[in-house]
Design a protein that fits this description.
The chain has 529 residues and is α+β, with helices and mostly antiparallel strands. It is built from 16 helices and 17 strands.
Length: 529
């Protein structure tokens, strides 16, 4: 006898735009904490409010803006569906929620069975799916449809209403921030409310994400940045990092037929991601005094997603260790015999930006770089093979906020058939690509008097490539003849052919090497006292 169940799914929309609505770090922190609570305690608390018993074993997923929960009857499911969007509107104004429900039979599905059947459920004709796997696939499809439906914003106001100078949204309250009264909109008020004692000069942060990402039981306020300017040190550069796991689609397709396995996998993945973040933190904490101040601020940490802001010079080492640890911590997938791989991999993007640059555009760039890395890693894959872990980065040099393709064309293409877009860089060796380790070694070789001279000549050579390629060749010959680092110059200016957009380009790694060296060593302001 089959048991009919109701698979409920919710996806939080507009997370990134909500988090990075302003450049004020305290608001970004508050927003990330709000999003974290939406999928955990806020969702769970609703059950008590509507008189439904919450069962943790029925919760399949609750991380990174996604919820999946199994209800045993339609009445209980309907109660949550009615109140959840409104509760989120009020809790985090500016965030919207898409919901969908799929009916499925809890039976052992066989290959010759149809995906779904039409039958009577509680007096209503329903499309009932025959397996948990098919129900999950249908749920994701319905959630995508819901996301594409426009929803009326809960933060709209009349033209005559006073607007926040930071967001342009209607002002609803006054808040004292850094001893000054500030007009805030509903979303900003909710973010600031995530702070304890927000009206006091030395207020405490809600630090749950930091505690999780750093593996700390207790953090003091002085250890965490209140403003982004506090995160910089010898220069004004910060990094926005976005990392995302590979192979999740294959895993869901393989083990998604079993709701127990799916739940176990989701919990193990979430744990592995958080453990990888802790290990990454431990690997770089020697580069700052953690008892005084930690120049890292996690924004999203859950599922296979990891987004953080940190001091620029530690970003590459930090995310490299995270990706390495993510692979090591996800070896639990070995227990699933149907999978063709024994661990998961991850790709990442790093956007190096000035502390005054809009964070929203910085995050979009980091996400685009992560996607570009995934695209390269997926090329020429064998059947059942996972993409190798890799990362891409870019240092924003101007105020234009175009997509990655436009940035690459304008900044990294000195001539129609020449490009400085050499990445992505891989955690392990891959034919035709450079490893992250090799990249950092080449950047470090520019330290010292001779390296500094070579660096200056290489910059001149790159400039000449834009204006006069023939003169650039002469410049390179001259550099080779006068430096003791001839082999180094040959390596960083070696011509490599890549297919880009259906055509062949000559690419050089020198631009990225100089970027990492500059980020790690450039001094534009006095050392902090």
């Amino acid at each position: 006898m089959s048991e009919t169940k109701f698979l409920y799914g919710a996806a939080v929309q507009g997370i990134q735009s909500f988090i990075f609505q302003t450049n004020k770090l305290r608001e970004i922190v508050g927003a990330s904490e709000l999003v974290e609570e939406i999928c955990t305690s806020k969702f769970k608390d609703l059950f008590k409010q509507v008189g439904v018993e919450y069962n943790d074993s029925n919760c399949i997923l609750h991380a990174a803006g996604n919820i999946k929960y199994i209800f045993n009857n339609e009445q209980e499911c309907a109660k949550i569906v009615r109140v959840f969007p409104k509760a989120i509107f009020e809790f985090a104004p500016g965030v919207t929620v898409s919901q969908a429900v799929v009916v499925f039979d809890n039976i052992e599905w066989k290959e010759d069975m149809p995906d779904f059947v039409e039958k009577d459920v509680d007096g209503k004709n329903r499309k009932v799916f025959q397996s948990f796997k098919n129900a999950v696939n249908e749920l994701e499809k319905r959630l995508r449809i819901q996301r594409n439906k426009p929803m009326r914003s809960a933060t709209l106001g009349l033209m005559g209403i006073e607007r926040s100078r930071q967001t342009g949204l209607p002002v609803v309250d006054f808040r004292k921030v850094k001893k000054e009264m500030t007009r805030v909109d509903a979303g900003t008020r909710a973010k600031l409310d995530m702070f304890k004692h927000a009206d006091e000069p030395e207020f405490e942060l809600t630090k749950s994400l930091c505690n999780t990402a750093f593996g700390k039981e207790k953090l003091y306020s002085r250890q965490i940045a209140y403003d982004i300017e506090e995160m910089t040190e010898k220069n004004d550069w910060v990094a926005i990092i976005h990392a995302d796991g590979n192979g999740l689609g294959q895993v869901v397709q393989t083990i998604g037929t079993d709701e127990k396995q799916f739940k176990e996998f989701s919990e193990s993945l979430d744990k592995a991601t958080k453990e990888a973040a802790v290990a990454a933190y431990i690997s770089v904490k020697g580069k700052f005094d953690e008892e005084e101040f930690i120049p890292i601020r996690p924004i999203v940490l859950g599922g296979d997603d990891f987004t953080t802001i940190c001091r620029a010079d530690i970003a590459l080492d930090y995310v490299t260790e995270f990706v390495k640890q993510f692979e090591e911590k996800t070896t639990f997938v070995e227990q699933y015999e149907k999978l063709s791989f024994d661990k998961l991999t991850a790709c990442a993007g790093i956007a190096y930006i000035k502390s005054s640059f809009p964070f929203y555009y910085g995050y979009n760039l980091a996400e685009a770089l992560c996607s570009q890395a995934k695209k390269d890693a997926k090329a020429d894959l064998k059947e059942g093979e996972l993409p190798k872990s890799c990362l891409m980065f870019h240092k924003v040099q101007d105020s234009f906020t175009e997509d990655w393709a436009a940035i690459a064309k304008r900044e990294l293409t000195p001539q129609p058939n020449i490009s400085f877009q050499f990445g992505p860089y891989y955690l392990c060796e891959k034919a035709g690509r450079m490893s992250i380790k090799k990249l950092t070694e080449l950047a470090d070789e520019l330290n010292g008097k001779e390296g500094n001279a070579v660096k200056s000549h290489l910059r001149q050579w790159m400039s000449l490539l834009h204006d006069n390629p023939e003169m650039a060749k002469q410049k390179l010959l001259r550099l080779r003849s006068m430096t003791s680092m001839k082999s180094y110059v040959d390596e960083v200016t070696k011509e490599t052919t890549r297919i880009n957009g259906g055509k062949y380009d000559t690419v050089f790694p020198v631009y990225d090497i100089l970027t990492i060296h500059t980020i790690n060593n450039q001094t534009t302001k006095e050392d902090k006292q």
